[in-house]
Structure formats: structure tokens, C-alpha cells
Design brief:
Blueprint lengths: L14 E2 L3 E15 L10 E2 L13 E8 L5 E8 L4 E4 L4 E3 L2 E5 L3 H10 L2 E18 L2 E2 L14 E12 L10 E2 L15 E7 L5 E7 L4 E7 L5 E5 L3 H10 L1 E16 L19 E14 L10 E2 H4 L12 E7 L6 E7 L5 E4 L2 E3 L2 E5 L3 H10 L1 E18 L16 E5 L2 E6 L2 E4 L7
Antiparallel strand pairs: 1-10, 2-9, 3-9, 4-8, 4-9, 5-6, 5-9, 7-8, 11-17, 12-17, 13-16, 13-17, 14-15, 14-17, 18-25, 19-25, 20-24, 20-25, 21-22, 21-25, 23-24, 26-27, 27-28
């Protein structure tokens, strides 16, 4: 999405788009349900009265259940009317471990929102309660007429913190259907990548990606030090299916924190020094010091993004092609993610490919146009789970033509120029014959 900085405005205009549906988890636990303890040990479960605050007509109540009898009985009761009479909800559906009810009118919505629900029946456990809700989505007052992410290298299509589990007896969680969340894959192209960021990965964690009809596409294991898994969409029909019907993320023993469309595979890191036989020498200068917590998911790590132009307008003045930009950091979490963006002429965010080192990550300026863009519009330091503390620019030391540095350890710099040995003293240059060159 196009992003702007308005330096002269002291207010922000927010335009509301049509409403969109999101999902809210309101309770997790493990409650056995039974109205006959002789058949199954359990009881009725009554929720807090304000558990469903904000519920509205058309919202869906979703209850994760685990059956413990061959023929469990599922009943949800609400308290209807002025006499609060217990009334069973009609049209409850149960499939794949999920009990669902679509709120049919505003009267029932208000009564559930203020009075709660009672779960009854026989032979099952409740492990999670959630409901969809409708809210207004703020949008850019001057939206990009072409939101196709082809102009960007990455696009975040979903972020949150959802425990994933296909067996709630072993691990409390859900199987995430993107069509039931604020998630759109519009703009996905053939041969692009879907990147799934994860956290809280436990031993023997597994993941499975399915199409919207729950048919499996790919699965695999997750090691405890993994922070992402990647799927390349190489089939045009599959691209169309994902855009139209979304996906289902299944598995167990991990949390899903983000889904990203990427033009390239982010797990393949470029070689930061393509010619290690001829390493470049840089003269470095520090242009900023501070302490800013960086986070694009504040539920995982409290923080923000750092827009350098807001901190120091001319921080990158004089930047040139082949200069290096190093972002030094501290207090990084194990799953820390490092990202860097600049803004083009229309102030669209464009992501840069960074190389990661111990204690800093870096970007080498690819062109004079890029250098000018960064100098004019700054950088945006992004990612997850670290503190940015220092920015350093490195400028390559010049060794043009036949000039060679022959003694770096000497207090006087010596090099060959126009066939003569030249010595630099006190910022003046002398040849060995004593002739002043400059």
C-alpha cells in the first residue's frame, strides 16, 4: 500500500472502507461437557456474560471441540427474552473438530453478547471459543490505483499470533482457514513464494499447507530453530485457486505469526562479498545512534518501525553507489527478523535485500538512483524482535587507475601515480623528486 509522509500537515484524514470480517479468540481451556456423568465425566459450561461483547447478526461463533464418544451430543443454549429462558440455538454445524453457529438476528446477538452461552450435551470437550466480528477498515485517503504487489518484493497478507494444531488433545490450537480472516492473496503470481513466519516451535512440530477445499499441497517438519517455511507456487491453476479460495494452514506444535508473498525465496541469502579475493576497504562514519525497539507484530515483541527521515532529514546526505549501510542492533530475540525498505518517487515502500551479520545487518547501495532515493527520502528500518542502536555508512576507499597503496602501516601514505612514488604528508602530495603535485 502506498505510504506518504506529510511534513506540513498537523492532522490525518481517515476514510472508512466497507466493513471487513476478522476473528477474535475469546476463551481457551479444556472443559468436559456432559449432562450424564455416569456416561461421561463432565458438566455444563456457562461462559462469562460479557465474553461475546460486540457480537452482531451474521457473525459466526466457532467452538473447537474434541469428541470422546462415538456419538457425542452437541447443544448450545442461550438465555432468551425478558425471562431469560434457556433456549437451544438452531442450525449448529459440527465438522473437523469445529462447532459453528451463524447468528441469525440482532435480538439473539444482543442476548448472547450480554448474557453469554451455556454449552451442554454429552461426550466432548471444549478447548477454544472464538467469533467473527465486523469492523470498519481504515484506508489510505489516496489509495494506490494499482495495488498489484508486482512492483514490490514482498507483501504481508496476514499477521497475528495463532497456535496451530490438528489435535487439540496434544496441543491447544486451531487449523487456520485464511478465507475466514482478513487475508487476501490478490496479486500472487506464478513462481512467486508464500513465506510463513512461525514462533514457539516445539519438538516434533509439523506443518501442512492445503488448498481452500482442505486438499493437501505440501507438508513437512519444523525444527525448533526454524522461523519460516516457504512454498513456491509453480502452477498457474494453483495461483488462481489460492486467490479465489484461500488456504488452510494445518499442523501442530507451533504458532503462525505472518503470511507473506515474496517475489524471491527469502531463505536464499545472497553472497555479501561476491569477490572475496578482492575485498573492498571502507571508510566508515556513524550517522545515527539511539535505541529504538523494532517490531511489526507488537503481540510478539513490543516496538515499531524506524523511519529515518523523521529522525534526521539529512542522515544519508552524500550517499553514493557502492556505499554500505550497516544497522547495528542489540537485544535480539531468537526469532529476530531484519528488514530494510526505502521509498520510491511516489513514496511506495520498496524492500531491500540485506545481508545479516553478528550484531548488524547491511545493504550495499546498488546504483546512483538508489543512493539518491535513500538520501532524499530516508530508510525504514523494519523487522521483528530487536533494538536498532546505530547506523553506519561505509564509503569505499578510492584506488583508481595505476594508483596503489604500497604501505598502509606507514604514518605517511604512499602510492604510485603517473609512474612515480608519491608520499602524502599533511594532506599535501610530494613526488620523490620534491615536485609538488598538488
Amino acid at each position: 500500500m502506498k505510504k506518504f509522509i506529510f511534513c506540513l500537515l498537523s492532522f490525518c484524514v481517515v476514510v472508512l472502507s466497507p466493513a471487513f470480517s476478522a476473528e477474535k479468540i475469546v476463551w481457551t481451556g479444556d472443559e468436559p461437557i456432559s449432562w450424564n456423568p455416569d456416561v461421561y465425566a463432565g458438566s455444563e459450561f456457562e461462559t462469562a456474560e460479557d465474553l461475546f461483547a460486540g457480537l452482531a447478526q451474521g457473525d459466526t461463533i466457532k467452538v473447537s471441540v474434541v469428541a470422546h464418544l462415538d456419538e457425542p451430543q452437541y447443544v448450545i443454549t442461550y438465555k432468551a427474552g425478558s425471562d431469560w429462558s434457556w433456549t437451544n440455538l438452531a442450525d449448529i454445524t459440527v465438522a473437523d473438530g469445529l462447532m459453528s453457529y451463524i447468528v441469525e438476528n440482532e435480538t439473539i446477538a444482543n442476548e448472547i453478547a450480554t448474557r453469554g452461552l451455556v454449552f451442554r450435551g454429552q461426550g466432548y470437550n471444549i478447548t477454544q471459543i472464538a467469533f467473527t466480528y465486523v469492523e470498519e477498515k481504515p484506508v489510505d485517503p489516496d489509495p494506490d490505483p494499482d495495488p498489484d504487489p508486482e512492483m514490490d518484493s514482498v507483501k504481508v497478507v496476514w499477521s497475528g499470533d495463532t497456535a496451530i494444531s490438528w489435535n487439540t488433545e496434544e496441543y491447544a490450537g486451531v487449523q487456520l482457514e485464511t478465507k475466514n480472516t482478513e487475508c487476501s492473496f490478490v496479486g500472487l503470481k506464478k513462481d512467486w513464494y508464500l513465506v510463513f513466519h512461525v514462533s514457539n516451535v516445539e519438538e516434533n512440530a509439523l506443518y501442512e499447507l492445503c488448498k481452500g477445499d482442505w486438499s493437501s499441497m505440501v507438508g513437512g517438519e519444523l525444527a525448533q530453530d526454524d522461523t519460516t517455511f516457504v512454498f513456491q507456487v509453480t502452477d498457474e491453476a494453483l495461483v488462481e485457486d489460492i486467490i479465489a479460495n484461500g488456504m488452510v494452514i494445518k499442523g501442530i506444535r507451533f504458532h503462525l505469526t505472518a503470511i507473506i508473498i515474496s517475489v524471491t525465496d527469502p531463505t536464499v541469502k545472497p553472497d555479501p562479498d561476491p569477490d572475496p579475493e578482492d575485498p573492498q576497504v571502507y571508510v566508515e562514519r556513524t550517522v545515527w545512534t539511539g535505541d529504538i525497539a523494532i517490531s511489526w507484530n507488537q503481540e510478539v515483541y513490543p516496538g515499531t518501525e524506524f523511519v529515518t527521515i523523521d529522525s534526521l532529514q539529512d542522515m544519508f546526505a552524500g550517499l553514493q553507489e557502492k556505499d554500505s549501510i550497516k544497522i547495528f542492533y542489540t537485544d535480539a530475540i531468537d526469532e529476530a527478523q531484519f528488514a530494510l525498505s526505502y521509498r520510491d518517487e511516489d513514496w511506495n515502500y520498496k524492500d531491500l535485500t540485506v545481508s545479516e551479520k553478528e550484531g548488524f545487518f547491511a545493504y550495499k547501495v546498488a546504483s546512483e538512483e538508489m543512493a539518491e532515493a535513500i538520501a532524499d527520502r530516508g530508510l525504514v528500518i523494519r523487522g521483528q524482535g530487536y533494538h536498532a542502536v546505530r547506523i553506519v555508512i561505509g564509503t569505499p576507499e578510492q584506488t583508481e587507475g595505476v594508483e596503489e597503496i604500497v604501505n598502509r602501516q606507514s604514518s605517511n601514505r604512499k602510492y604510485i601515480k603517473d609512474g612515480q612514488l608519491v608520499i602524502i604528508r599533511e594532506e599535501k602530495e610530494y613526488s620523490i623528486l620534491g615536485q609538488i603535485i598538488k
